[in-house]
Amino acid sequence: MIVCVAVVGHQNNPLYLQSFTEADDALKLHHVVHCSLDVIDERVNNPKRNAPTLNETFLGLLYPTENYKVYGYLTNTKVKFLMVTTDLDVKDADARNFFRKFHAAYVDAVSNPFHVPGKKIASRSFGARVSTIVKSFGSGTTV
Amino acid sequence: MGREVAGSCLDGVVMEMVSAYCGRFYAAKPELAAGRIEAIGFQVGHQLSERYTMDRPRFTDHLEAIKFICKDFWSELFKKQIDNLKTNHRGTFVLQDNCFPWLTHVSLDPSMESTDATESDPALLGDTAAQTTSMLLYFPCGIIRGALTNLGIPCAVSADMSNLPACSFVVRIKT
Amino acid sequence: MPPLTPPKSGDALFSSVERVNAELFTLTYGAIVRQLLTDLEEVEEVNKQLDQMGYNIGTRLVDEFLAKSNVSRCVDFKETADTIAKLGFKMFLGVTATVTNWDAEGTTCSFVLEDNPLVDFVELPDTCQGLQYCNVLSGVIRGALEMVSMKTEVTWVRDMLRGDDAYEMRVKLTKQVPEEYPYKDDD
């Protein structure tokens, strides 16, 4: 189950943050998201270790903790997408597919002429679309 | 192929935007009008670069991003690529389109010379057309600057139309 | 005299014209509206300017439409409205409108659009609720009709950006000059 998703701008400014859990662990999730951003910066700034996937948008597993796994995605425009899940066994293809849809939703949201670049995404339809994508994550593969 | 509309719809709104800013709003202040037209282009370029880089790996350097503008980006916009790309290897790139579509449309469209100018002599009319054209070019300059800025490349973009209908866009990367 | 070839279908017309990426058109229009809101401050003034732009565009598009569609002069307002809905919208925007809600006199009708390329991605912020985002379209209709000697008033009655189920503009014929040809004398 995905418990949290985030979109973060190129100056690490939050553009969208939404948790999908009843549990009151917002602080913990924010901390996980924060640490994951550092992991992304580190990977991008020290690319040698990941040479084959150097410029791929999908960054894979960033930050496994006891309870969560965090996956990341970095666009050409330096926008970071994060997904925090409690699933133990996440298929690579599912994660990639999730980010592709998430990114597409973001692209449409920032195509709104009234969206101000760098500002938080206020769009209701974006929120609804992300919820749908989150709910459909991994459906049919692992229950 | 995605959704399409008639080219005259796009031409129409672009021409009207240019003539509104240069005529109705800032007739006496062309530099203000130019800034607004460029800003409109910037927003469009910023948004389009987000859309058109969606399914591709991140660019490794400036040249790769500029090549993307010349090929894929230009093709999405104009169904053709930039004809010639030159660089001084010191941060300046010249993108030449041998027949820039928006310029051919302007010169073919007599109504652009605004109705109140029809009585004046042809030389003056030509002048107006040249002015309109140079103002119009702030729009694609803004598009290019918006796209490159969003790809992490701050730059200044100007247009050279000394060789119509060819048009060169000069990109100077800010360091 | 107009050519005697039969009028083209909407689809044939749309495929015969030069077409561009709709995203470029949609985003360009959106950026213009956004910039106008910044520069003109008054939403009412933005509405007016969008309408004026549309009017100017409409007066030019009508020539292209008549030249490419093989449509000869329409006999009355009703026929003209049908032609615009079925052929005009299709030729320029790639969508068709429905003509409906005629009044008893046959001088007022509605154009209804369910699909509108102008508003893809658009969400109105709460701060500009008075904005008639699609005013360029009503301006185009008014401008085009005036070129075929029909003076009209066009107003929006439904707008999906405000939560309605479709876009509907009300077109009211206020004055018709029957003897005039759609072409100017010097053509």
TrEMBL record, chain A:
Coiled coil: none
SUPFAM superfamilies to which the protein is assigned, alphabetical: SNARE-like
InterPro entries associated with the record: Longin-like_dom_sf (IPR011012), Sedlin (IPR006722), TRAPPC2L (IPR044760)
GO BP annotation list: endoplasmic reticulum to Golgi vesicle-mediated transport
GO CC annotation terms, alphabetical: cytoplasm; nucleus; TRAPP complex
UniProt cross-references to Pfam families, sorted A to Z: Sedlin_N
Gene3D superfamilies recorded: 3.30.450.70
Protein family (similarity comment): Belongs to the TRAPP small subunits family. Sedlin subfamily.
Name of this protein: Trafficking protein particle complex subunit 2-like protein
Organism the protein comes from: Brachypodium distachyon
Organism phylogeny: Eukaryota, Viridiplantae, Streptophyta, Embryophyta, Tracheophyta
UniProt gene name: LOC100836908
Automatic annotation (TrEMBL), chain B:
Pfam family, one: TRAPP
A GO term from the CC aspect: trans-Golgi network
Biological process (GO), any one: endoplasmic reticulum to Golgi vesicle-mediated transport
Range of residues in the leader sequence: none
Gene3D superfamilies: Trafficking protein particle complex subunit 3 (3.30.1380.20)
Family designation: Belongs to the TRAPP small subunits family. BET3 subfamily.
Protein name, UniProt field: Trafficking protein particle complex subunit 6B
Taxonomic lineage from the root: Eukaryota, Viridiplantae, Streptophyta, Embryophyta, Tracheophyta
Gene transcribed to yield this protein: LOC100842892
Automatic annotation (TrEMBL), chain C:
Principal localisation: endoplasmic reticulum
Family according to the record: Belongs to the TRAPP small subunits family. BET3 subfamily.
Cellular compartments per GO CC: cis-Golgi network membrane; cytosol; endoplasmic reticulum; TRAPP complex
Stored Gene3D superfamilies: Trafficking protein particle complex subunit 3
Signal peptide residues on this chain, from the entry's feature table: none
Record bears the keyword Endoplasmic reticulum: yes
Annotated gene: LOC100843330
Its job: May play a role in vesicular transport from endoplasmic reticulum to Golgi.
Localization, UniProt: Endoplasmic reticulum; Golgi apparatus, cis-Golgi network
GO biological process, one term: endoplasmic reticulum to Golgi vesicle-mediated transport
Keyword tags: Endoplasmic reticulum, ER-Golgi transport, Golgi apparatus, Transport
Protein name as annotated: Trafficking protein particle complex subunit
PANTHER family hit by this protein: TRAFFICKING PROTEIN PARTICLE COMPLEX SUBUNIT 3 (PTHR13048)
Record note on quaternary structure: Homodimer.
Matches recorded under Pfam families: TRAPP (PF04051)
The organism of origin for this protein: Brachypodium distachyon (Purple false brome)
